[in-house]
Q: What sequence folds into this?
């Protein structure tokens, strides 16, 4: 295992959705509920799960943009919880976010130069007097031209707008960037260009990424490891290439089997997801996935599974992960 850049320890991010007459919270939306996770320096960690499972909230939690009710988020061993605004300030430029909708993320009344200058103002190195030069360099890194500095966001295509958002993230000299569904709104061809750009920048600047997506198919090309999230919890962490060959959690298997297959005769062997996404206000007892799981037994309904640490840091939260693992291993053997 490499050096840990970000460490999450039993993090809970809950939102009060109802209050009593005296103002006390009476119901909570548990968007992130007991997440422990390491993000290694220089890796791209994927975070995948259905819409509404808490992925984006987890990204925001790491960037101190969501209310943590318990647990700790550590950046290079410094716990960010409880730091006041002044003590948090040096960490802000080091951690950036690129959002799904670049149009909404860019101020339509500002030119690209103004947008980049605003971000550069919080960069630790500062670049007083050299903003124009630095802004042109940032655009060059994302394959845009210096003449684009004087245009407004609406004058660009969706892909170009996302490049401007990436340039803005780079302007603060970050170490860590969260890409929150950053390619989901783009055409497939543009998606591939942005993914290639992300990979180039990661290598050039030794960046660490959290790549959030609901689309598992993209993870194999982009990520080193993938964390699978279900109903506010991480249920599996696995090397990206292994996740497709031998998923250890039944939910991961269903996500994998939902991907398009070239051979339609194989469709019948594939697992499908039944039922609805569970409520984050009142998640099911025991294993949260049990109402939708084909392997569920009595223990799954009654006892919440612990996160089990497997070889080389891989993790799974399932009472019967070994059964699924054996089954997938047998299938792989019979295919070879
Ligand atoms: Fe399915 Fe049980 Fe594993 Fe949960 S613990 S994923 S219900 S087999």
A:
């Amino acid at each position: 295992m490499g050096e840990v850049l970000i460490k999450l320890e039993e993090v809970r991010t809950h939102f009060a959705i109802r209050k009593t007459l005296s103002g006390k919270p009476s119901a909570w939306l548990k968007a992130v509920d007991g997440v422990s996770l390491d993000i290694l320096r220089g890796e791209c960690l994927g975070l995948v799960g259905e819409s509404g499972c808490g992925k984006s909230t987890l990204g925001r939690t790491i960037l101190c943009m969501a209310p943590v009710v318990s647990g700790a988020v550590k950046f290079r061993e410094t716990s960010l919880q409880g730091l006041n605004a002044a003590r948090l300030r040096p960490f802000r430029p080091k951690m950036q976010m690129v959002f799904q909708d670049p149009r909404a993320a860019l101020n339509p009344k500002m030119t690209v130069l103004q947008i980049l200058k605003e971000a550069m103002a919080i960069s630790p190195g500062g670049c007083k007097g050299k903003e124009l030069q630095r802004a042109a360099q940032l655009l060059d890194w994302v394959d845009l031209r210096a003449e684009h500095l004087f245009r407004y966001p609406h004058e660009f295509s969706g892909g170009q707008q996302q490049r401007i958002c990436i340039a803005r993230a780079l302007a603060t000299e970050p170490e860590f960037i969260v890409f929150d569904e950053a390619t989901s709104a783009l055409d497939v061809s543009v998606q591939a260009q942005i993914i290639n750009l992300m990979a180039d920048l990661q290598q050039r600047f030794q960046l660490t990424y959290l790549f959030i997506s609901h689309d598992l198919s993209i993870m194999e090309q982009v990520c080193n490891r993938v964390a699978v999230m279900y109903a506010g919890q991480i249920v599996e962490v696995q090397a990206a290439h292994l996740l497709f060959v031998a998923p250890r959690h039944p939910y991961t298997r269903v996500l994998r089997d939902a991907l398009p297959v070239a051979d339609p005769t194989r469709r019948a062997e594939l697992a499908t997801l039944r039922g609805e996404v569970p409520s984050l206000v009142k998640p099911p007892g025991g294993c949260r996935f049990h109402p939708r799981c084909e392997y569920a037994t009595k223990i799954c309904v009654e006892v919440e599974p612990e996160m089990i640490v497997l070889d080389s840091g891989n993790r799974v939260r399932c009472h019967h992960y070994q059964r699924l693992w054996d089954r997938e291993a047998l299938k792989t053997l019979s295919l070879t």
The CA atoms of residues 93 and 120 lie 9 Å apart. The chain has a mean pLDDT of 90. The longest helix spans residues 188-205. Residues 249-250, 287, 289-290, 293, 295-296, 300, 305, 318-320 surround iron/sulfur cluster (CB under 6 Å).
